[in-house]
Write a structure and sequence with these properties.
With about 120 residues, the protein is mainly beta. The chain has one domain (about 5-115): Beta Barrel (OB fold (Dihydrolipoamide Acetyltransferase, E2P)), CATH 2.40.50. Helices cover about 10% and strands about 60% of the residues.
Length: about 120
C-alpha cells in the first residue's frame, strides 16, 4: 500500500481563477515556512507550493469569493508531477498539489490549539 497525501498551512500569494463549462478552477500559490535554531540566530526556510482545485469540490463558492492574497489557508491534497511544452518548445516539468480541500483559516488561535 502507498500513500500520496499532503497538508499545507500557509499564506496565499497569487490567485488565478479559470472557467471551464460553468465550473471554476482555482490555481494559487501558498507560502509556508520552517523555523529552526541556527548557530547564531533562528533560520527561516520558506517554500512556495502551487495548488490547483475545483470550485464545489475542493473549495466552496463562498471560500473562493473570500480568498485573497495573504489569506491563511489549510490545504489537503496529493502531489502531482506533470510535463508540458513551453512557448519556447522546451519540455517543462511542474510539481503541484491537487487539492481535495482548501479552507480559509479564520480563527488562528483555535487552529494553533488543535495542532498542539
Amino acid at each position: 500500500m502507498t500513500l500520496n497525501r499532503i497538508e499545507i498551512l500557509g499564506h496565499v500569494g497569487n490567485i488565478r481563477v479559470s472557467t471551464f463549462e460553468d465550473r471554476h478552477s482555482v490555481n494559487l500559490s501558498v507560502i509556508t515556512n520552517y523555523i529552526y535554531k541556527g548557530r547564531d540566530a533562528p533560520v527561516v526556510e520558506e517554500m512556495w507550493f502551487n495548488i490547483t482545485g475545483w470550485e464545489g469540490k475542493a473549495i466552496s463558492t463562498e471560500a473562493l469569493n473570500a480568498l485573497a492574497r495573504g489569506s491563511l489557508v489549510r490545504v489537503l491534497g496529493r502531489m502531482r508531477e506533470r510535463t508540458y511544452t513551453g512557448t519556447d518548445d522546451t519540455l517543462k516539468k511542474v510539481t503541484e498539489v491537487v487539492a481535495s480541500t482548501i479552507e480559509i483559516v479564520k480563527d488562528t488561535d483555535a487552529f494553533q490549539a488543535a495542532l498542539t
